[in-house]
Amino acid sequence: xxxxxxxxxxxxxxxxxxxxxxxxxxxxxxxxxxxxxxxxxxxxxxxxxxxxxxxxxxxxxxxxxxxxxxxxxxxxxxxxxxxxxxxxxxxxxxxxxxxxxxxxxxxxxxxxxxxxxxxxxxxxxxx
Length: 127
Ligand code: HEM
Description:
Elements: H1 13-17, H2 19-35, H3 49-63, H4 75-79, H5 86-102, H6 107-118, H7 121-124
Bound molecules: protoporphyrin IX containing FE.
């Protein structure tokens, strides 16, 4: 049996947490908390939340190594002209981290996702 290669294929963070269904559940919860946050809700007034959720699920899935491709706008264009502050950015990230923790996503996975999305701060925050 020496010629049978061991299974060394790395498991993506996306697969580790349960794939698309898990990401969708986290994103639903995330936008629930964002819309319940009086400092953030006005940004989303009148928006098609279904489309936004779909794009957010794709982005997070892609960042976690899932077999999908984000097809929304780049983050600078998507947030252009909204005058989002650093504080508001931090609140959004906090809501996402809380939703991930509530779904029992492991800390190392949250850390990697947080580092990648946190790096988008200069594209999202005004100035
Ligand atoms: C890590 C931080 C963030 C990420 C990864 C992120 C990601 C995204 C994505 C993927 C979209 C969809 C773009 C599209 O449909 O083409 C989007 C849209 C949007 N984001 Fe964010 N976002 C972040 C922070 C924020 C913050 C801090 C706010 C407001 C305080 C915000 C408000 C919005 C709004 C209002 C839209 C809808 C824009 C539109 O459809 O016209 N986002 N965001």
